[in-house]
Amino acid sequence: MLIDIYGLIVKCETQPPELAAELTRPFKYFYRNHGAPDIVLRVHKAEPPHETLPALDAEFSTDPEVVYKDNDQTIIDYPGMRAAIIVNRQRSAYTLYGMDRTFLQENFFRLMMSLLENHCDIQGMLAVRALAVSLNNTAILITLPPDAEEPAFQYPALPAKRLRLISNALPLVNPKGHVIPAPVHLGFRDEAAVQSIPPQFIVRYDTPTSSRRGHITWDYWQKRLETRSLEHSIVVLASRRLSGEPVLNRCSRSKAAGYLMRDAVLRVGRNQSLAVGHHNWAWNQLHRMYTVFKRFRPAAKLIRSSEFYRLYLSRDDEKNTACIKPIFDGLV
Q1: Which pLDDT belongs to residue 273?
Q2: What average pLDDT score do residues 225-239 get?
Q3: pLDDT, tens digit, 9 for 90 and up, residues 315-328
């Protein structure tokens, strides 16, 4: 099975074979029948072959992961979970092992998103962690705080009849500064947020590494997907507040540039342990400087063509939803 996301061609192989459809379902929009893969991603519903792996010392750990490296491969081990991810850098091959289907779903998705972010860096595109929808030829991006997995509001409560989905988690900005579609599944935390959605489009799961209750499948949005490149954008820069009511204010371009540089260009506070790179420290620093420069160009063009708001999130998803609705009402 092939997935082609703007030139990133990934071949997915699974054991058992029927697992492939389940894992790749969030990326149905990018299914292809032909192409030469850049990366091979193999998934085995089995315990990792620890007895065949080299005796390596741990490089670092980010609970629950322990990372090992040598000249040819990176091994991300999950002690106690009977799971691991093995990366062969020379062959551009990734192999996931695990007995739990939810673990395989979550980490296949994380790995695909990490590979996509790396591909965007190479191609001069910007990946923004946000929920993105379109309304009346305008892209609306609501950024996610660095620690957030899902939007802190109820998507179905928005004016869904005229909205089109661009991306649930990682909209892309092309070198011209235009927002382009990257639809994958939309996760949810609160059962009340999906009461109006038919059950055949809901996948529920429980995992210790995620706060999500499940996701809304790609099929639900099939007739309401944005397929165009959009030049004009409204960007809502979201952050958390410890207590109090949600607040939405206009934001100047100069202040927005600082927030966007921190969250989308420098990616401060982001866990990027799956974005495995070269093990040489000096090379990594040079590569990071070059990557930041390439991200800055589409970010600067996005800033020039967008309106900005600052959103301070409360702990109440329903109140957060009500707080951002005036933006959508102004476009209807």
Answers
A1: 46
A2: 93
A3: 888 888 889 888 88
**Residue 136 shares a structural domain with residue 118:** no
What is the distance between the alpha carbons of residues 321 and 61, in angstroms, rounded to a whole number? 36
* pTM for this entry: 0.81
Whether residue 145 is found in the same domain as residue 184:
yes
Examine the domain organization and report whether 108 and 172 are in the same domain.
no
The range of the structural domain enclosing residue 56 comes to 2-123
Instruction: Single out the residue in 72, 101, 123 at which a domain terminates.
Output: 123
Same domain (yes/no): 89, 161: no
pLDDT at 177: 94
